[in-house]
Amino acid sequence: MDVSSFSNQHYKAQAILKRGINGRPKTFLAISETNESKLVVKQMPSPLFEVSSEMQRRLAAFLSLEGVGIIPGLGTYKHSQEIYLIREYLDARSLAVNRIFHPEEVRNIAMALLEVLSAIQYQIPSIVHGNIKPENIFFQPNSSQGSQIVLTDFSLTPVSQWGSNLNFPRLSSLGFVPLEQVAGNPTPASDNYAVGAVLLSLLSGTASHQLYTLTSEENAYQYPVQEILLQQNFPMSSYFMDWLGTMLATNEGDRFPDARTALYALRHIQVIARPCVQVSPSEIYLQAERFGEQLQAYLEVRNLMPGTMLRGKWRVTPYLNDAGNWIQFDTDHVFGNETTMLLSVDTEQLLIDKQYVRELGFQSNSERPIVAVSLVVKTGSLKLPARPLPVLHLTGLLVVSGFLPIALSIILW
C-alpha cells in the first residue's frame, strides 16, 4: 500500500514513521480529513485472510483498553487484503534516544512501566503486551502527572504464530523477547523480561538493535547483569542488580511472575549503590589473667563497594547494670574504606571471676545500616601475691625456736 491510497479512507498521509523488514512502509503519520487530528495508521502483521479468532480476541481486548500509560486504539479498517490499526498520535519522545540514563531515572521509568503493565495484566481477559522495547515506550517529562510513561504497539500476533514467525523475535525485537515467547507461550513474566532488557539498554547506553550483543556467548537469552552494570559510571546497589537479574532470568519460572510482584519488590530497593561494609572479627573473646587487667583487641572495617565512601560510628549497646565506660575505642568515628580500630576493655571496673557479654554496633551509611559484633569478656580472679620471707628473719626464727625451750626450763628450775 502506498501513501496516496489513504485518500480513499478519509486520512491524508503526512509521513512514513516505520518501515518493515522488506523496506515497505508499515506505519504512517496521517491527518484525519474529518477533524484534522493527527493519527497513527499501522499495518497489522497478518493479512485479512490470515486473521484468526485469537487475533480478533487480542485486537478487541486492545481496543477496549483505557487509562493512563497507554495510547488507545481507535479502530481498524481494511484495504485490499490488509488490515490497518488506527490510534491517536502522541507528540512525545521515545526511550530510543542515544544516551545513558541515570539509575534514578531508570528506576522511575521501571516503576511507571510496571504500573501500566500491572493494570493491563489484571484486565479480563489478561493482556500480555508482547512487544516492549525502547521504541514503543514514550515519556513526557513535562506532564502534569510527572514523567508519564506511555506504552504503544501491543503485539497482536496470535500466540500460535509466534513460534513460527522467526522474523518477529529475531529481527525486530532481538534481545527483548524471552525464549518461551519465541516458542509461542508468552506470559506476564515474558513482559517482565522485556522490561528488564529495556532497563539494561538504558543503563548501558546500548541501542535496541545492538542489545543482543550483551548476551552471553553460551546462551542468547541470558544477560550477565552484574558484569554489565559494574562497568557503568554509576555504582548500582547489589539489591538492584539482583532484582534486575531476576527480571532477566532465562527460565520463566525464575522471574517475577507478573508486573505487580516485580513492582512491589522494586519499591523497597535503592538503585544507587551504597557502601558494602565488612567488619572482622564478628566475635571477640577476651580473658583476663588477673584482677584489673587492661585487655585490647583490633577491629577491621572495610568497604567492599567501589566508587563509594564509608562513613560510620561505633557504639556500645546500652546495658542496664553497667556502671562506667569500661569499653572504649581509640576513635569511634570511621570515614574511609579501610580502617583499623583499637578496642580497650578495663576489667578493673568489673567484678572478679565473671563473664560479661555485650554487643558492639557499627552504624553507617552502608546497605546494612548496623553491623553487630559480639564481645565476651572473662574477668580474672583476686589472688594475693605469695611473698617470700627474708633470710635473716627465718634465721632469727630458727634461733629463737631452738633456745627458747632451754631458757624456759632454766627459769622454771
CATH fold type of the largest domain: Transferase(Phosphotransferase), domain 1
Total individual domains: 3
Q: What is the class of the largest domain in the CATH system?
A: Mainly Alpha
Strand runs, count: 17
Sheet with the most strands, sense and barrel status: 5 strands, antiparallel
Given as residue ranges, the uncertain stretches (5+ residues, pLDDT < 50) are 1-7, 158-172
Radius of gyration: 38 Å
What is the share of helical residues? 25-40%
Structural class: alpha+beta
DSSP helical segment count: 10
Overall residue-averaged pLDDT value: 81
* End-to-end separation: 154 Å
Q: Give the full name of the CATH homologous superfamily of the largest domain.
A: Transferase(Phosphotransferase) domain 1
Explained architecture:
The chain is an alpha+beta fold and 413 residues long. It has three domains: 1-89, Phosphorylase Kinase, domain 1 (2-Layer Sandwich); 92-273, Transferase(Phosphotransferase) domain 1 (Transferase(Phosphotransferase), domain 1, Orthogonal Bundle); 277-378, Sandwich (Immunoglobulin-like). It contains ten helices and 17 strands. The strands form four sheets. It has a five-stranded antiparallel sheet, with no helix packed on it. Helix 2 (103-121) runs antiparallel to helix 6 and helix 2 (103-121) packs antiparallel against helix 9. The longest helix has 22 residues, at 391-412. The protein is elongated and about 110 Å long. It starts with 10 loop residues before the first strand and ends with a helix.
